[in-house]
Amino acid sequence: MAQTKDQRIGTRYVRDGEHYDEVLSLIGKAKYDVVVGTSDIKDLYIKEREKTKPFLGLLSTLLRKGVSVRLIHAKEPGENFRLDFDRYKTLAQKLQRRLCPRVHFKIIVIDCKIAYIGSANLTGAAIGMKSSNNRNMEAGILTDEAGLVDAALEHFNSVWEGRYCAKCGRKRFCLDKIS
User: Fold this and answer.
1) H-type helices in 16-170, by residue range?
2) 176 — pLDDT class (breaks 50, 70, 90)
3) What pLDDT sits at residue 5?
């Protein structure tokens, strides 16, 4: 259920395939900014009209429209993801990305107004268009409650800005020093 101009999302529980139907559909409607924090990131695909395309294509479209996209993930993605990444030149130019091996949260904030906080990584089995027989069992909260949105964004920003880096016990695993 996507939010319309006059409709509030409230706070609700999202499970399994609802991640694809509800959370990803809202990302595509972003007007200003999207932040995504995930432990794992793989070649996630979405439906667009009658076709499928990589989720990275959606991010590229948003970036070309002037939407800021920031991504934190914990490990380097696989080869298929990198091949998809290379198909969209806008990603290399405009996608803001950080790698932090300690990130395990799954946070998505859209236009500083809607947040997803839950278990789903940015993978096909977690949040993508897989069938219910091939999907992970995921759970999360989708909300437009300002306090929760602000808390999720502040947590994301604390990692983005490197506030944990000085005392991090995993520096030797960090390939992308934030600070």
Assistant:
1) 18, 25-27, 55-64, 79-87, 89-94, 124-127, 146-160
2) low
3) 53
Domains located in the chain, CATH noted: 11-161 (3.30.870.10)
What does the alpha-carbon distance between residue 32 and residue 111 come to, in Å, rounded to a whole number? 5
- Name the token pair of 11: 């706070």
| Strand segments (E) across the chain | 11-15, 33-38, 45-48, 51-54, 68-73, 96-99, 106-110, 114-118, 139-143
CA distance 66 to 74: 26
42, two tokens: 């793989």
Instruction: Give the number of other CB atoms < 10 A from CB of residue 163.
Output: 12
pTM of the model: 0.91
Q: Give me 109's structure tokens.
A: 């904030």
> 18 vs 69, which has greater pLDDT?
69
**What's the alpha-carbon Rg for the chain, to the nearest Å?**
16
